[in-house]
């Protein structure tokens, strides 16, 4: 088992097994289940979120709860086919605090994200996407190993060491927390980022 946790896995199935056994950070010790990325092994586009939420933890699939449903609406609006993308998270387990019956989402810490980079890097090495879309600060840190300001880096590609491109945008949960004019403005920016990704993807593929 330890070998599976320390040697870079070379199949998605091996990563899936290994993340379920992973206790390298405190999040993996909570009462939760690892959620593996989902999508074609040779996807040109990899979409990265923060971590599974309550519904993802229960269903074992990424982006099926409220944030995922909003993401689906925006992807469809700009013409990105989610089923053709490999969808995953920077952190593989749901971090929460229990409040009565509810499990409330907690942001992963920098150390937790950096520990979990091992898995996202392993997924990326196998899928070899041409373009990675990181949604939110945790996803961006998961890809870059450092914190960036989304407003500063969004809208233009960041070159990754293997020749692929990283694009950064806001997390759909951020949109869910806004309303009124602020929500509309952020939805517009989100759509613009997704549309730029769709354009770039059609050039790269
Ligand atoms: N938010 C994320 O970042 N990822 C999910 O899978 C679900 C919600």
Automatic annotation (TrEMBL):
The keyword Acetylation does not apply. Keywords: 4Fe-4S, DNA damage, DNA repair, Hydrolase, Iron, Iron-sulfur, Metal-binding. Coiled coil: none annotated. GO terms for molecular function: 4 iron, 4 sulfur cluster binding; deaminated base DNA N-glycosylase activity; metal ion binding. Residues 36-195 form the Uracil-DNA glycosylase-like domain. GO terms for biological process: DNA repair. Belongs to the uracil-DNA glycosylase (UDG) superfamily. Type 4 (UDGa) family. This is Type-4 uracil-DNA glycosylase. It comes from Qipengyuania flava.
């Amino acid at each position: 088992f330890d070998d599976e946790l320390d040697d870079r896995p070379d199949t998605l199935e091996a990563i899936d097994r290994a993340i379920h056994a992973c206790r390298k950070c405190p999040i993996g010790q909570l009462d939760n289940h690892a959620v593996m990325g989902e999508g074609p092994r040779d996807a040109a586009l990899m979409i990265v979120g923060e971590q599974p939420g309550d519904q993802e933890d229960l269903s074992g699939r990424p982006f099926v709860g409220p944030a995922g449903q909003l993401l689906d609406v925006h992807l469809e609006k700009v013409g990105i086919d989610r089923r053709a993308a490999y969808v995953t998270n920077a952190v593989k387990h749901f971090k929460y605090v229990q409040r009565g019956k509810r499990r409330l989402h907690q942001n992963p810490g920098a150390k937790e994200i950096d520990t979990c980079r091992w898995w996202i890097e392993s997924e990326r090495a196998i899928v070899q996407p041409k373009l990675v879309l990181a949604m939110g600060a945790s996803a961006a840190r998961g890809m870059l190993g450092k914190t960036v300001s989304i407003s500063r880096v969004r809208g233009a590609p960041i070159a990754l060491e293997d020749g692929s491109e990283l694009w950064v945008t806001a997390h759909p949960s951020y949109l869910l927390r806004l309303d009124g004019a602020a929500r509309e403005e952020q939805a517009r920016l989100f759509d613009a980022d997704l549309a730029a990704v769709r354009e770039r993807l059609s050039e790269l593929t």
